[in-house]
Amino acid sequence: MRLSLCVIAKNEEENLPRLLSSVRGVVDEIVLVDTGSTDRTVEVGREFGARVFSFPWTGDFSEARNFSLDQATGDWILFLDADEELVEGEGERLRKLLEEGVADAYSLVIVNFVGEREGIDAVLHSSVRVFRNRPEYRFRGRIHEQIVLSIQEHGGRIEFTDIKINHYGYLSGLVRGKKKISRNLALLERAVRESPRDPFNRYNLGVEYLRQRDFAAALREFQAAFRYLPSLAVSYASVLVRNIVLCLVALGCYDEALKVLADAKEAYPDYTDLLYCEGCVYLNQGDLERARASFEECLARGESASHHITQRGVGSYLAWCSLGQLEEQKGNFEVAKSAYARALECHPKFYPALARLTSLLLRSTSPEEALRELLSHLNLEDEEACLIAAHIFASQGHHEQALELLDEALRRHPSSSRLCFARGGMLLQLRRYAEAAEALSAVSPSSQVYPLALLNRVLALTLGGDLAGASQALETLPEEHALARRLYRAWLDRLAGEESLPALLPGEEEEAKETLLELLGRLLALEAFDEFERALPLFFFLPEPPRRLELGKLYFRHGFAELAAEEIIAAVRGGARDAEGFAILGKVAAEKGFHEEAVVFYRQALEEGKGDFSWYTALIKELTFLGRYAEAAEVVKEGLKVFPQNELLQSLLPLLQKMGTSAEVKGSARGEGRSLN
């Protein structure tokens, strides 16, 4: 029995080694079809012994896939993408399965890592990835190409297995880097135009909109896909219904979501994801008892059946974490702690549960006791867990405990650049500048955090009074950060008494603005006001109105509300029009009790940008406080034009209209009373 791996790739030099290493000793042949790479994809493939073929990209994945099948000589085909890997230890199981050869194709479990990094959160689905090498088995579909239909049409037998493949392509960084969403969107929109009644294309287009958080567009496509489904037994039908629910929830349509779920649970009783969604809807509605019942039922049932596309953890750690949130809302802190701990037992790397447990401990006890209790749940060998917990302590002002936690982690990982960087940041916040500089010097130049660590070290040395050391450290900043080096150099020169300002090259303005805002923000946070004043003129390359607008926003973020208002008002007088700036003025005015002025500012914010829901609710709140119910109702109507399915606005409208009518009646009665006198 010979097994051929078929891969199509373009500019995948970073991913290919992981994939090809994972199948070493498992496959007998590697067929790599390159669709136009400009990096080392072809060379990497050849280094692993692949037979490499070129194929011009035609905008159709099936054509490229089928070309790869034409080149394969094995008895069986395994097809994988470059951003996937066969999980360690699964190769032997796969070969044994194929040696027995009782079926014509096998469905494997794809573990799709999502979020910022692998191992934390994942969506699981089954997909046919192994099949006999027969000329009648060919792919169909311009994108999200399928092999199943051709296998079924020719009487092929398909079996499910629990052999796993890891997929890294949905991790946030990879998606952004490859512009994968834009590519997929264009291909799918074309496919939908060509076949508007194809439910699979409509479903996949909805998925792309969902990934872009365009919930209204996603809902439209999902509902169209559902209308055209040939049967509820289609492999993606259950997740299609779940996605409809997710969109309805995101749009605030909780009652409609519950109606969909009621029918869906009957159709798919082994799909725990639906119960989990139901619990989340009830939680959003504040119906804690029904939410509890749903999450407890999730735990009783366990994970969804393997033939569904499922969110990993709905029958375990996700349900436990949601129960923790529920108990926390009810004030049952001890029960909530236990629930979060159970979530971590199920999945030690489920960091949202760790973050909630840490925050809850800080809410319910002293920082010292919170740290002691957390250490009983925390795996100090897990760098990421230690960094997350330390960040939460620091974000709530408990830098000493954060530092203690990092010191414990560094005893186990003394050479970790990330831990050294975090420790230096804590010491900097504690204004222990010499110690901060020393800690930051331990960050390796090869680390991703090295440039920022070096700038933090320059900051620590400067605020510690060692300008010469800061100047020397600055010179080691990598060349790709030359602009930051020039700006920090100018700041150090100004602290030394010089008054010169750096000249910016064309196109450097935006990067210079971001670099200086970061520096100015750090100085404000450390209350290094003299150093802030010396750095401020470096920002004067911006024209006055936008400069004062940016400074106003910076002051507001760091708690200097009056200074923020002064700068933003000056910017507005200079001609700047900015929605966020007006919203800040509205918040400042409201906090000071100037409600009439707050109304004016919030109205201006909405005139400049109608996308922020919180500005509508803030304006409605101010108008209601002033008893201007009819105006508040009009704002609700305007909000519903932007957020047409939002249930909060829908519920507010009749209430405000009733209050407005009541106020008019009372006013009329008072007026009649006065006329009689």
What does this structure look like?
The chain has 677 residues and is an alpha/beta fold. Strand 2, helix 2 and strand 3 (51-54) form a beta-alpha-beta unit. Helices cover 61% and strands 9% of the residues. Strands 1, 2, 3, 4, 5, 6, 7, 8 and 9 form a nine-stranded mixed β-sheet that branches. 41% of the residues are buried. Among the domains are: 3-169, Spore Coat Polysaccharide Biosynthesis Protein SpsA, Chain A (Alpha-Beta Complex), CATH 3.90.550; 415-541, Serine Threonine Protein Phosphatase 5, Tetratricopeptide repeat (Alpha Horseshoe); 577-676, Serine Threonine Protein Phosphatase 5, Tetratricopeptide repeat. Helix 12 runs antiparallel to helix 13 (288-301).
